[in-house]
User: Which sequence fits this backbone?
């Protein structure tokens, strides 16, 4: 276990890592409560898979001690892990825009005789968008959720000032399938490498960064081009090496692990703690 000073530094580093993740999740319409549930599951799942310091199989009580969660909560999350529920899992707290669309399609006062969502004025009674948001609950202003849904194409404003729903589910315009794939295929392996090097520095995986805090603006375009060309050349060479040695007769699921090398470019504002 790390000493308190190293723990503090690690938490500080994790906070910096969390900012772009938070930005991406907020842009995807995912609330903090949804993220907290996922984080809780990750903590429990990881703790369950690790034996304690004496090599004993981890039980609910030991997981509770390690994670800081109650035994009741660990048991609940463990049940979810063993029998995962997807889609409209009631244990997940969805964001308010998503909840608004859900109720707009399901609540009797907001649908017509055919069960289709009706057009809603913004305010002026219960059968309004503001009335819908009161049903959603929370302390977020109805105007803020209106702006989110309009920007994401979840609803449109009609010439008469009413709002017409366009989607049943809230999927912000910024959300892209490639982003989701990239997150799981690129970010997760990078974090696994960092974690591995922390756990077993004697057999460290390669982890290299070349950067500058003093590169002039005039050199940025050239740097982007140079880094792109050299990285492309490196990745092509590695890909050729892998292709020459792969045994395609082996079924992917039979292999113990996936191996690879990743390269990425970054550019951002330097913070006081960077």
Assistant:
């Amino acid at each position: 276990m790390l000493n308190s000073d190293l723990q503090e530094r690690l938490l500080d580093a994790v906070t910096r890592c969390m900012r772009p993740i938070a930005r991406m999740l907020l842009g995807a319409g995912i609330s903090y409560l949804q993220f907290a549930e996922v984080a809780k599951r990750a903590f429990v799942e990881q703790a369950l898979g690790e034996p304690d310091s004496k090599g004993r199989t981890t039980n609910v009580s030991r997981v509770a001690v390690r994670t800081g969660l109650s035994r009741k909560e660990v048991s609940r999350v463990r049940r979810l892990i063993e029998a995962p529920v997807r889609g409209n899992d009631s244990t997940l707290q969805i964001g308010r825009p998503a909840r608004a669309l859900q109720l707009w399609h399901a609540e009797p006062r907001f649908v017509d005789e055919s069960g289709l969502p009706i057009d809603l004025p913004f305010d002026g009674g219960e059968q309004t968008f503001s009335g819908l948001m009161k049903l959603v609950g929370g302390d977020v202003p109805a105007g803020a959720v209106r702006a989110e849904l309009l920007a994401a194409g979840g609803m449109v404003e009609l010439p008469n000032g009413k709002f017409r729903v366009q989607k049943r589910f809230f999927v912000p315009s910024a959300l892209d399938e490639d982003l989701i794939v990239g997150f799981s295929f690129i970010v997760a392996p990078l974090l696994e490498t960092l974690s591995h090097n922390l756990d077993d520095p004697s057999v460290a995986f390669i982890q290299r960064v070349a950067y500058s805090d003093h590169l002039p603006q005039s050199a940025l375009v050239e740097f982007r081009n140079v880094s792109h060309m050299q990285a492309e050349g490196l990745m092509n060479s590695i890909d050729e090496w892998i292709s020459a040695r792969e045994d395609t007769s082996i079924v992917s699921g039979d292999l113990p692990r996936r191996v690879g090398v990743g390269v990425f470019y970054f550019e951002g504002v330097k913070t006081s703690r960077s």
